[in-house]
Amino acid sequence: MINLFKMDFHRFIKNKVMYALLLIYSAFQIFGVFMMSVYEEPMAESGVQTSQMNASEFIQSVLSQTPSWMLLYIMVFTVYFYMSELNAGFYKNYITMKHARINSVLSKIIIQAFFILLMLLTLIISDLIGRSIFFGNNAIGDFGFFLKLISSQFMLQWAFSVLILCVAIITKKLLGSLIIGLAVALNLFGMILSSLETVLFDKTYVSDYLLVNTIMRIKDFHELNEWITVLSIALVFLVIFIGIAARYRWREDLR
């Protein structure tokens, strides 16, 4: 496990695509803040002007937009990182050892956690820079609320990345993984289910607890129950997808 993680971590820190994704994401975030300053509108849920939002409100506003660019970047990195090893043929060195297969999956899940931390850090710094320059506002707001937001988003985005890893492991195809990952990141299933529930029952039930819907929903973390609910959803999906990925890799056909 340790040796596999060391190799994956070495590939991670030497991965030029990863740095390119972070740089591009940062640039577009700052540019997005600039565009918001030009075409400023109040937040639909609260009526607060964009320029008056604190960091928590602004980040929630950004993450609730469709498409979710953060999910798209996480999807691209997850697929690329897994497929680069698969295409290089390195996995053949340990594929005959079942425990090594599972350890390889766990190693990549940990690497994805590092990438998501970097993405969230990039989001926070880029939005802080953009809001300071274009809005003259660098307020964070309630620090406890901010910590709950970031911690819950980390867990949710991590669960999403493991879902995409499952897709890559099962399909073993770059294009197929990207197409399915794009559909998941765009929340096509969640939107369809939400629409069906609204038409049939006049309100949503199951769709409120779907992973991507939860990621994109505006949350009130002043209520402790909200934070616990969100973390519970993230943990449930995380455990399910880790189990699927590990089990599939364990039973994988060697041909």
Q: Structural class, from helix and strand content?
A: mainly alpha
Instruction: Domain count, please report it.
Output: 1
Give, in order, the helices and strands: HHHHHHHHHH
* Overall mean pLDDT: 88
Count of separate DSSP helical elements:
10
Name the beta content range.
under 5%
- Whole-number radius of gyration? 19 Å
Regions with pLDDT < 50 over 5+ consecutive residues? none
Distance between the termini: 24 Å
Q: What percent of the residues sit in helical stretches (DSSP H or I)?
A: over 70%
Largest sheet: none
Number of E strands: 0
How does the overall form come out from the CA principal axes? globular
Structural key phrases:
transmembrane; 255 residues; 10 helices; ABC transporter permease; globular; transmembrane helix; 0% strand; mainly alpha; single chain
Explained architecture:
The mean pLDDT is 88. The longest helix is centred in the middle third of the chain and has 37 residues, at 98-134. α2 (16-38) packs parallel to α5 (98-134), α4 runs antiparallel to α7 (174-185) and α6 runs parallel beside α10. Helices cover 74% and strands 0% of the residues. It starts with a helix and ends in a 5-residue tail after the last helix. By secondary structure, the protein is mainly α. The protein has one domain (2-250).
